[in-house]
Amino acid sequence: MSRSTVLVAVDGGAGGVVARDQVEAICAELRQEGHDIVRAHTAEDALALTQSRADLSAALVSWHLDAPEDVLRALMGRFAKLPVFLVTTATSVDDLPLWVSEAVTGYVWLLEDTPDFIAGRIGVAADRYLDGVLPPFFRELRRFDDTHEYSWHTPAHAGGVAFLKSPVGRAFFDYYGERLFRTDLSISVAELGSLFEHSGPIGDAERNAARIFGADLTYFVLHGDSTADRIACHAGIATDELVLVDRNCHKAIYHGLTITGGRPVYLVPTRNGYGLMGPIPPHALTAPAVAEQVRRSPFAAGAVGSDPVYAVITNSTYDGLCYDAVRVAELLGETVPRLHLDEAWFAYARFNPLYARRYGMSVGPEVLSDDVRPTVFSTQSTHKLLAAMSQSSMVHVKNSPRSPVEHRQFNETFMMHATTSPLYPMIAGLDVAAGMMDGPGGRWLTDEAITEAIRFRQAVARLGRRIRDAGDRPDWFFGTWQPDQVTDPGSGEVYAFADAPLDLLRTSPGCWTLAAGAEWHGFEGMEDGYCLLDPVKVSITCPGVDAVGNVGGMGIPARVLTMYLEARGIVVEKTDAYTCLILFSMGITKGKWGTLLDALLDFKALYDRGAAVAEVLPELVRAYPDRYAGLSLPALCGQMHEQLSKSELTALLDEAFTHPTPAVATPAQTYQRLIRGGAESVRLGEVAGRTVATMVVTTPPGIPVLMPGESAGEVEGPILRYLRALEAFDREFPGFPSETHGVARDGAGEYWIMCLR
């Protein structure tokens, strides 16, 4: 960082003209030394700057400000080791609270030292802070870049020079800038270390990330969480070993089974009336329940051993349901020595007390005894909800004496999947993502995301209530999925969610846990505290169905809302039948979610006045004029709601995903037949009783409804009825297709699935 920013929070009128002139002279000297200055004359201004300026490198704060302690606490709460100098008087030092004396870097007596000297002290501290704030790899990459050495190694663009020799190359170079290409280096640059050997600054960065995330070992993965999942599986599962697999797993876990030859025994999660997939009930994770699942599995016969060696659980689920990871480890630890938590969407959990015990690296010897505690893997898609570049991921390991990970052995698997040509800016991004969460910064960043998500949720709830109370328009509105009421654990006072204090909602996990039997979540088999709804994953609910599956007469399918939002430049993460998922990441702002709220209100206004589809979704009408021209928005929603209700799609989805069909062959056995030409494409209407050769993955929810080697089931079985309902929906509503991997569509809209011959 070539420049720094110093906060000067001193009341301009305090201390008289001489003191004011001294402050101005200090600021002038700091500017002369290359530092930017931001001024605050009140505590309110200083707090606003602390909130909005992440580039502060030092602060000069007057104890005679109107609320100096608030300013100091805010600076400590956001910045780790920020040098803070306190402007005071000699007589007041002894009266300072002890925590203030411990927090500040030094004291400034304005009239006792020269402005040059005071500015020099602040400037040196700021420069030292800036050098220390950079994490290991990024710091060394910057130093290497600053040496401006010629590049004699790959990549061949040689720091971007090659692009300058071509018109299109020059356009590419100008678009991204020289620095990106100067830091795109080869593994030949020994001083930056090795991703394979985990040495030098790269190794330092991984060890620093392990400290920050609470792991014993951390590995940087540059091919996304899918590769991280495959590495963890490949390193822990051998051919024909039994593996407990969450049926709610990402398809990368199943690719891991294909690679390793592991034999899956499925743990089936619950679903609710919205079609949202919940957690695996705790009773299904007990040793007797697992033993019964193994006994009934067709893969138990011929397995290497009778006990599973590995278990995989998705945490959090795609809809934001987070397990008590310690409880899961306690239950499954009686059965398996290694537990893999796929935390692709949950890398921030360690950094906020709202998620205490709910992430893999919390499962340490201080919470579970070593005789039951498994070794835990957490695979995290760092780029999804932390600040890293796409495809940047990490594998974290918390070792247990029962089955510890030996680095050299694990690294053999790591090297099978890693690249010998890593993109160094991606490594720097992982290093920085970890550094951003270190110390108070992690709490500050997660607090902000949680707070904005809750504000949005409450804004939607209050709007819905105002619309109902007004009585001057149709009383429907969208909702957000969360408890209707919450209880303050201290006072016992019960609040409607819309009216609950913000501080209660953002600090009390009890406001978000799935109480046993509560209708708002609609999941069965819960125990209190076992599962928590993550407030930053916001499911917008549409009229048409509720959490326990009651179907309404009027409905607005979420696909229509999602298409409207996309037309307004708002892209949601996932769309189900009557819900769509919005992620409140660290990049969220009030302005950003305000546009979403405005769009929801506009959609309601368009629906209520019977606007034409051509007005609301003009691109859809241009693409399919024969189907949608002349149709109103309420008519389109009504037709779609009727189709979903008549086909019982949500109920079928529940049954299809919670009642897997019998398995005939393992994923690995099926894959061997597939690549040797032992498969053919079969029309959906003729697939009953056949063994599928590839995964059939419906999106939503983005997980397999059929695994390679499983029977498609009977003609009237839930899976084929579900797939036929999707096929019929796609035909009836062109432009709103279901995204189903493993299915090919012909010109007539028929589904075709690969099956074993």
Automatic annotation (TrEMBL):
> What InterPro entries does the annotation carry?
OKR_de-COase_N (IPR005308), Orn/lys/arg_de-COase (IPR011193), Orn/Lys/Arg_deCO2ase_major_dom (IPR000310), Prn/Lys/Arg_de-COase_C (IPR008286), Prn/Lys/Arg_de-COase_C_sf (IPR036633), PyrdxlP-dep_Trfase (IPR015424), PyrdxlP-dep_Trfase_major (IPR015421), PyrdxlP-dep_Trfase_small (IPR015422)
Q: Which GO terms describe its cellular component?
A: cytosol
Recorded GO terms, molecular function? arginine decarboxylase activity; pyridoxal phosphate binding
Residues the record lists as N6-(pyridoxal phosphate)lysine modifications: K384
Which SUPFAM superfamilies does the entry link to?
A: Ornithine decarboxylase C-terminal domain, PLP-dependent transferases
Q: What keywords were assigned to this record?
A: Decarboxylase, Lyase, Pyridoxal phosphate
Task: Tell me the ranges covered by the Orn/Lys/Arg decarboxylases family 1 pyridoxal-P attachment site domain, including all copies.
Answer: 379-393
> Coiled-coil region(s) at which residues?
none
Q: Which GO terms describe its biological process?
A: L-arginine catabolic process
Q: Which family does it belong to?
A: Belongs to the Orn/Lys/Arg decarboxylase class-I family.
> What is the protein name stated in its UniProt record?
Ornithine decarboxylase /response regulator receiver protein
Lineage runs:
Bacteria, Bacillati, Actinomycetota, Actinomycetes, Pseudonocardiales
